[in-house]
Specification:
Residues 61-286 form the ABC transporter substrate-binding protein PnrA-like domain. It holds the Pfam family Bmp. This is BMP family protein. With 345 residues, the chain is of the alpha/beta class. The chain has helices at 19-25, 27-30, 60-75, 88-100, 114-123, 150-163, 178-194, 211-223, 236-243, 271-283, 314-328; strands spanning 33-35, 38-40, 47-52, 78-83, 105-109, 128-132, 142-145, 168-173, 199-204, 228-231, 246-251, 262-268, 302-304. Helix content is 38%, strand content 19%. The radius of gyration is 22 Å and the shape is globular. The model is unreliable at 1-38 (pLDDT under 50).
Length: 345
C-alpha cells in the first residue's frame, strides 16, 4: 500500500533567524538537534514512514512491527508504506529508494545487511532509521531495537516445565542469533526452575519463514519423546496439534487457532518502541539510541498471554502469576543469555 503524505518538512537554519523570531516560532516548532551537521527539525503530522521487511508481514516477528505502524497510521500520526519479502541482496536498494523519496522514518530489520543499511543511513543524515539489529546504534540517525521478550518467555517455560509428562521439551527456532537464543534460554531456565528433571531437544531450521521445515523438525522431536514444543517458528504448532502434544507460542498469541494445543505464549508489543520513535521524529528530538529496553514488560513491550484454566491447572497458573508479579515489581530478574542453546539429551 502506498500513501502520500501531505505534511511539509520544516527545516530552519539557526543563522537565519534572530532570538525574537525564534521565540515567536516557539520551541516546539523548532526542536532542533544537531549531530555533525545533521539537524532534525520538528515535523507536522502525519510524518512519512516506510518499512522494509525480508519476510511476509504475516510472519510473527514482522507482524508485530506492522501492527504497531498500522495503529499509528489509523491515529493519523503517520502515512505508511511498506515492502515485504525483500531479498537481502535488494535491501540496500529499497532502503535507499525510500530515503530518496523523502521518508521521515524508515523501519525494518537488518540482521543480515548491517553494513549496507548503515551505509545508506550515513548517506541520508536527515532521515531517521529504526532497525532491528544485533548491534548498537550509529550516530546521528540509526537507532536499533530488538524483541526482548525473555521475561514472559521465562514464564512460558514454567508452564512447559509443569505441563510435560515425559520430561522432554522440544524447541524449534529459526537461526541461532542473539534475538532467538535469549528467548530460548529464558524459556529453558523457566522450565528448569519448576522441574529440574526436564531435558531439551533444540533444533534450528536456518530460515525465518519455512513452516513445512519447522513442522518436520517438530515431528522429529516428538518422535524422540517431546510432549511439549516451543514454537519459535510457524509450523511447530501444526505438528503439535497433529500429534496431540502441547505447544508454547512465541511473539503472538495463536491459542485461538490451536485450542487445547497452545497452552501459553510470550507476546511482543512493538507499540511502545514505534510510538516513541514516531514522537521523537515529530518533536524533532530523534537521536541514535537503543530502543531494546522498550520491549521489556516494564514498558509494556512484552506480556504473558492470559492462561486458560481449562488447559493449564489453576495451581500452575498461581505459581506463574506470582513470578510475573515479582518480575514486574523488580523482585526477580530474568537472565539475558544470548548464547546458543544446546540440546541436553
Amino acid at each position: 500500500m502506498v500513501v502520500k503524505s501531505s505534511g511539509t518538512l520544516l527545516l530552519f537554519s539557526a543563522g537565519s533567524i534572530d532570538r525574537r523570531q525564534l521565540l515567536a516560532l516557539g520551541a516546539g516548532a523548532l526542536a532542533l538537534t544537531t549531530f555533525g551537521g545533521a539537524a532534525f527539525a520538528a515535523k507536522p503530522t502525519p510524518i512519512k514512514v516506510a518499512a522494509i521487511f525480508t519476510v511476509p508481514v504475516e510472519q510473527q516477528w514482522v507482524s508485530r512491527i506492522h501492527k504497531a505502524l498500522k495503529a499509528a497510521e489509523a491515529r493519523g500520526d503517520i502515512t505508511y508504506k511498506f515492502s515485504e519479502n525483500v531479498a537481502n541482496t535488494d535491501y540496500e536498494r529499497v532502503m535507499r529508494q525510500y530515503s530518496q523519496e523523502g521518508a521521515d522514518l524508515v523501519v525494518g530489520e537488518v540482521f543480515a545487511v548491517e553494513r549496507p543499511a548503515r551505509k545508506v543511513a550515513a548517506d541520508y543524515p536527515k532521515t531517521a532509521y529504526l532497525m532491528g539489529s544485533s548491534f548498537g546504534p550509529t550516530k546521528p540517525n540509526f537507532s536499533v531495537f530488538d524483541n526482548f521478550i525473555h521475561e514472559p518467555s521465562f514464564l512460558t517455560g514454567m508452564v512447559a516445565g509443569k505441563t510435560t509428562k515425559s520430561n522432554v521439551i522440544g524447541l524449534v527456532g529459526g537461526y541461532a542469533i542473539p534475538e532467538v537464543n535469549r528467548l530460548m534460554q529464558a524459556f529453558m531456565e523457566g522450565a528448569l526452575s519448576v522441574n529440574p528433571n526436564v531435558k531439551f531437544i533444540v533444533t534450528f531450521i536456518n530460515s525465518w519463514y519455512d513452516p513445512p521445515k519447522a513442522k518436520e523438525a517438530a515431528f522429529a522431536q516428538i518422535d524422540k519423546g517431546a510432549d511439549v514444543l516451543y514454537a519459535e517458528r510457524f509450523g511447530v504448532s501444526d505438528a503439535a496439534k497433529e500429534r496431540g502434544v502441547k505447544a508454547i507460542g512465541n511473539v503472538i498469541d495463536t491459542s485461538a487457532q490451536y485450542p487445547g494445543t497452545v497452552v501459553a505464549s510470550a507476546l511482543w508489543h512493538m507499540e511502545p518502541t514505534i510510538d516513541r520513535a514516531i514522537k521523537a521524529v515529530i518533536d524533532g528530538t530523534f537521536t541514535a539510541e537503543d530502543y531494546g529496553p522498550f520491549s521489556y514488560m516494564a514498558h509494556g513491550g512484552a506480556s504473558l498471554a492470559p492462561l486458560d484454566p481449562k488447559v493449564v491447572p489453576p495451581e500452575v497458573i498461581d505459581v506463574v502469576l506470582l513470578k510475573e508479579k515479582e518480575i514486574k515489581d523488580g523482585l526477580f530478574r530474568v537472565n539475558v543469555n544470548d548464547g546458543e542453546p544446546k540440546s541436553t539429551m
